Hints:
Elements: H1 7-23, H2 26-33, H3 40-48, H4 67-80, H5 86-99, H6 103-110, E1 116-118, E2 128-131, E3 139-144, E4 147-152, E5 170-173, E6 179-184, H7 186-222, E7 226-227, E8 230-231, H8 236-265, H9 270-296, H10 307-319, H11 325-336, H12 357-373, H13 376-380, H14 391-399, H15 418-430, H16 437-451, H17 454-465, E9 471-474, E10 490-493, E11 499-506, E12 516-522, E13 533-539, E14 545-551, E15 557-568, E16 573-574, H18 580-592, H19 597-613, H20 626-655, H21 662-684, H22 696-710, H23 717-729
InterPro entries: Acyl-CoA_Oxase/DH_mid-dom, Acyl-CoA_Oxase/DH_mid-dom_sf, AcylCo_DH-like_C, AcylCo_DH/oxidase_C, AcylCoA_DH/ox_N, AcylCoA_DH/ox_N_sf, AcylCoA_DH/oxidase_NM_dom_sf, Mycobact_Acyl-CoA_DH
Keywords: FAD, Flavoprotein, Oxidoreductase
Cofactor: FAD
Amino acid sequence: MNFDLTDEQVMMRDTFARFLDENSSMARVRKAQESGGFDHALWTGLAELGAFAMRVPEEADGMGLGLFDAGLLMEEAGRTLASGPLAEALVATRLLGLLGGQEDLLAAALGGEAVVTIAMQDIAAFPRQWVAGGLVAGAVIARRDNAVVLVTVPAEARIAEPTLATTAIAELDLGALPATVLASGEDALALFAAGREEWKVLMALALSGLSRAALTMAADYAGERKAFGVFIGTFQALSHPMADLICEIDSAKFLAWQAMRSIADGETAAGAQVSLSAWYAAGAAGRTVRHAVQTFGGIGLTTEHDVHLYNLRAKAWPLVAGDPEDWLAEAGRRLYAGEQASLPDVGDVPVEFDLGDDARAIQQEIHAFFARNVTDEQREKFHFSWEGHNPVIHKQLVEANLAYLQLPQDVGGRGLGPYAVTAARSAFEEEGWSNPVANVAQMVALIMYRFGSEDLKRHVLSKVMAGEAICSLGYSEPGCGSDVFAAQCKATQLEDGSWRIDGTKMWTSGANLTDYVLMLCRTDPDAPKHKGLTMFIVPLKAEGVTVQGVHTFMDERTNITFYDNVRIPDTWRLGEVNAGGRTMAASLELEHGGGFAKVQRAMLENAVELCEEIPVAGGGRLIETAKAQARLARTYANVLASELIAYRANWTQVHGKGNGAYGPMAKMFSSELFITDSRDLLDLTAPYSLSKRKGAANALNLAYRHAHGTTIYGGTSQVHRSMIAEKGLGLPRSRN
């Protein structure tokens, strides 16, 4: 897996960034608006840097670079609101190079002396249409029925008029202008169609750069502007939407990266991913600039403030191709109706989302295990929660060395790398073995391995590793919720060094089944709340422990547990006394990193299956309708977004790329998408989705109920949004 650029790409990106910082400053953007939204000097400078030659084949005197390289330029152009039809010109010069016969025009375009753009619609059907850069372009490449033509646009045909963002768009009567046929037939039309697909990717990346710049501007302001005596960035009504938006912005970029990776790999879903990348980025940009203006308040409405430029460009750039919702519908047809797309040659793509050979090997081993050992009757009782625990299968997994994949080999684990562990979790989900027993037991085992005494490892860890004991988590309390560091369950050290545990824990899921609980206790009531805590392993079968069931509408049992004079030895303490915060942070980080993409994907597969079964009026099935295809495509985009955000968290941890709250982003973002999509898919398939009948309907029904818990356990979305806002955007702390 790789999220890094090559050294050459970093140098190229930085070169364009420096140039655009100087030549596309907000003062220059404003100046360009006075002359129709085009900066001729900027255009010439970009040409001198080779911008317009990037995607032109070398045999046509271009640079022959990949689409990913051009995307880096577009991200910087979006960040700086470059004044000119850059994405369209990159596609047009490539088409000129591929189709040939216009060497003089191509040379002029590469040198910045001529502007060539593209028309988005067939001019045989829409002779008069809006064209990006139409106000300054001397030529437009367009489809005309069965041919690709070059339309010459004289100056008198370019009529300026007020537009939303004062960009250089114009409505041109292309059908009335001179046109030269560049090529005709299927191959020519496929090349032009591929150019439009390339434009979608370039536009998605430009909008990602624009969105990040606008959000950064708003976050910086929120960290320095005060209202009511405090920084406005401490107001969660401002900071929490920013946390959502940074996840969306990163997802928009990663979806474009995924589309290019899929094209390079020949994946069948690549065409749909291209359409979804453009649709997703347009939506994220619109939501981002709206919130940025809101953050600035009244000053954001004025033309004096730069944020309004971002707001208007966020809409003006993608809308030249029409309604972005059309891309969602198009993606739906490509995914579920077999519609084909002509895709560009993207060249080298440095990013890689493949988890590797070790990952594939462990997945095959897991699937083989379930095929060999698990009966249909056992599968019937699988469940996402502790209710699905099967001690026989768990023991068999331990014996097959498939239970503790992340733990080091010297403690009895498999010692797999993070990517293989991620792949293994997906394989377990595919098999339906998604209950948390192994994950929690592994987490607790890791904490014992890192912080436990030799006595604890000998008496407890050894049993866990042998499959003879399992563990649960005792973090939350009735009055604390997600604020686990406010714990009041008390541990008092006795004269002989042992500890007495007294208090109550809430949401101790699995306590009715497990042998031990990892518990956070207050050991110094006078210390600051983060410093007066200590972690322990507490036996749940000990005298003084009472477990009381609490049942949820998710078909899941959790528990409230009571501890009355429960005695444990000091050797069952984890870490130093009153240093439980550090131990707790380690365990929470393990809990936060994965996200819920796996269950989202399973939910989508069940929704597709149900849509294939549900009849509609007039004949046919629900899956054949435009509304179903679009809404399934939206969920598909969100599944990809969740996967990519989680992969990024995985990758940054492996390579030590810093902590931008990537783990909380993966957990919060995926859980929120899970609950949104589960609600929508329940609506889409109603009333069939109301049933708890065996099969897809029951699975979708359960997914809706399950999704509610994912935004709460492991830390609520609100807590994670605060962490993301603080670590990912530099906003002031919003929690006391």
